[in-house]
Amino acid sequence: MDKTVAENDEISLKELIQEIKQWYQYLLSKWKIITLAGVVGVVLGLTYSFIKKPVYTATLSFALEDDKSGGSGIGGALGLASSFGLDLGGGGGGIFTGSNLTELFKSRAMVEKTLLSPITLNGKVISLAEMYIQNNNWRKKWNESPKLMNIKFLPNDDRTKFNRVQDSIMGVMYKNLSEGGLSVAQKDKKVSIISIDVISKNELFAKYFCEALAREVGKFYVETKSKKARMNMAILERQVDSIRQELNGAITGVAVANDNTFNLNPALNIRRAPSARRQVDVQANTAILTELVKQSELAKVTLRKETPLIQVIDRPILPLAKEKFGKAKGVLIGGFLAGFLMILYLILKRIFVVIAK
């Protein structure tokens, strides 16, 4: 039985080798077609390398300033302020840490606000959205549609007043940028430096959008994180102004009361009561004003601690990093791909012919 199995294996191996030779001879007989396909692929690959526009990458890196310690002196002062019913902020804004901050950069609100930022292009002030539209030649198609031909995106335009068509266009721009043109990531978990990469076929757009996005997010970040401190500082400033007016009025009242009691008979003490009350008001308002001024200065210190919050390290500098589909790459890929597809087509064609028989 072992002898029979050995003979069957030998026959199968011989048949396999013979089959491979037949396929090789068949493909070799078609060398002209395969070569022609390779040449066509080379031409197509070379043509594509000329047509394909280079892609530019603008990179901006920044460090997030997060001063949580603040020192014992500030901490004690904040505790004193809270005892008077005042919340001076002091380290708020924890929602914008780590991955939350990177997602903020990629949020639709920030991207659309950035697209409406003004830039100067060829001596004209336009929005980044208009520059994006020009880069993609959308206006040529829009001029054929009555609904789109008058659509404009002015610099610093009010986003809340956009109509449905404008919302749709902004949505398309956001989708294109967020899916293939915008990347925000922390390169190394051990280093608190975040990088923004903007990829575009237009070098200037990549640079302008990258810088504008960092600026808009930084502004929003500062305003949000320091909102509580700014509100309390405004309240304290209003209270200081109010108490100062009261104190000035009390001082004036003391002077008027003293004038009314000048050379007054010492026996008529009741006439001196208004002056005494005014002096008490002066002392009370002075004490209150002194404490409010301290708290107001403390609020200013707290606000300064929370601003600036984003420190830019590297900005995109022209010329930007460029990735281009090279001619050699086009020739190799085009020729190989076309030749491979032609060989695959010939193999499938012969298999179908054999099956049909």
Tally of alpha and pi helices: 12
Q: How many DSSP-defined strands?
A: 7
Category by helix and strand content = alpha+beta
Shape: elongated
Give the low-pLDDT segments.
68-93
- Report the span from N to C terminus: 35 Å
Order of helices and strands: HHEHHHEEHHHEEHHHEEH
How many individual domains?
A: 3
Walk me through what this model shows.
This protein is of the alpha+beta class and 357 residues long. The protein has three domains: 2-52 and 327-356, no CATH class; 55-226 and 308-323; 230-305, Helix Hairpins. 64% of the residues lie in helices and 11% in strands. It has twelve helices and seven strands. It has helices at residues 2-29, 31-51, 71-83, 99-105, 108-115, 128-135, 138-142, 164-181, 203-225, 227-260, 273-305, 327-356, and strands spanning 55-64, 118-121, 124-127, 182-186, 193-200, 310-314, 321-323. The strands form two sheets. Strands 1, 4, 5, 6 and 7 form a five-stranded antiparallel sheet that branches. Helix 2 (31-51) packs antiparallel against helix 12 (327-356). The protein is elongated, with a radius of gyration of 38 Å. The chain starts with a helix and ends with a helix. The model is unreliable at 68-93 (pLDDT under 50).
SSE topology:
Elements: H1 2-29, H2 31-51, E1 55-64, H3 71-83, H4 99-105, H5 108-115, E2 118-121, E3 124-127, H6 128-135, H7 138-142, H8 164-181, E4 182-186, E5 193-200, H9 203-225, H10 227-260, H11 273-305, E6 310-314, E7 321-323, H12 327-356
Antiparallel strand pairs: 1-5, 1-6, 1-7, 2-3, 4-5
Helix pairs in contact: 2-12, 5-9, 10-11
Keywords: Cell membrane, Membrane, Transmembrane, Transmembrane helix
InterPro entries: Bact_polysacc_biosynth/exp, LPS_length_determ_N
Domain Polysaccharide chain length determinant N-terminal: 10-114
